[in-house]
Each structure stands twice: as structure tokens, then as C-alpha cells.
Design a protein that fits this description.
2,3-Dihydroxybiphenyl 1,2-Dioxygenase, domain 1; 138 residues; alpha+beta
């Protein structure tokens, strides 16, 4: 059975800057990663961490962004996915699909994770992102 470890919790937002301005006191002590343009996912993203938990803030890059529909239904934004580190994507995908999950996006390299492969699975009403751990020597 594959091992799953939470990597981050992600929120879809209409504007990362506006969200951080509104919630300043809450997140001002968090470490902030750089703002990342991710054309493969059609989003801008930024990671925040309190040292224990990491949040990914996602903002759409236009109407074709995969989070645009979510934001139409939830204009202020909200929780969009949970992401898990896995040793290898194939057995993790197999375990989730055997549990009734549906592969939404097959493994693809992602700029936010140093080109490591990620995959999206829809399971029990939730979007799950699987992030392959770095391979030794990479």
C-alpha cells in the first residue's frame, strides 16, 4: 500500500493579493514563497507556511483556468484540494482508483514542484493532488 503524507492544503481565490491584504493579521508571520506563474495549470500560485502547515493560494489566469468554474460557484474562494506526497505516482493512483477515485489529470511535470510529476484524482467528492517525491540523485 502506498504511503501518503500531506504536502499542502490549497485555496482557490479570485486574487491572492486581495486575500492577503484582507487577512493580513492572520498570515503576516507566515513564510511566503515567491508568486509563481504556472501556465500549464493556468494559475498564479503562492505558498505560505507557519513552519508546520503549508497553504497554497491559487488565482486563475483567465476563464480557461481549471479553478475558474469553482470561483464562479464560490466567488470569495475556498478550499479547492488537498495535496499528498507519494513515493511513486502509479501505485498511489492505482490505490485511489481502486477505492472509487477517478483520474482527472494524468501525471505531468509541474513548475511549482521543480518539475516533479503530479496527478489529480477525484475521490469521495474531493480533488486530491498527488506529488511524486524527488527521486534519489535528482
Amino acid at each position: 500500500m502506498p504511503s501518503f503524507r500531506i504536502n499542502h492544503v490549497a485555496m482557490a481565490l479570485p486574487s491572492i493579493a486581495a486575500f492577503l491584504e484582507k487577512t493580513g493579521p492572520l498570515y503576516e508571520s507566515f513564510t511566503r514563497g515567491p508568486l509563481i506563474d504556472n501556465p500549464r495549470q493556468s494559475v498564479r500560485e503562492q505558498f505560505l507556511s507557519d513552519g508546520n502547515t503549508t497553504l497554497e493560494l491559487l488565482e486563475p489566469q483567465g476563464d480557461k483556468s481549471p479553478i475558474a468554474g469553482f470561483l464562479k460557484r464560490n466567488p470569495p474562494g475556498g478550499l479547492i484540494h488537498l495535496a499528498f506526497d507519494v513515493d511513486s505516482l502509479e501505485p498511489a493512483i492505482a490505490a485511489l482508483t481502486a477505492a472509487g477515485g477517478k483520474l482527472v489529470t494524468p501525471p505531468t511535470p509541474d513548475v511549482a514542484f521543480d518539475e516533479r510529476h503530479i496527478a489529480f484524482v477525484f475521490l469521495a467528492g474531493q480533488i486530491i493532488v498527488l506529488i511524486e517525491k524527488p527521486r534519489p540523485g535528482s
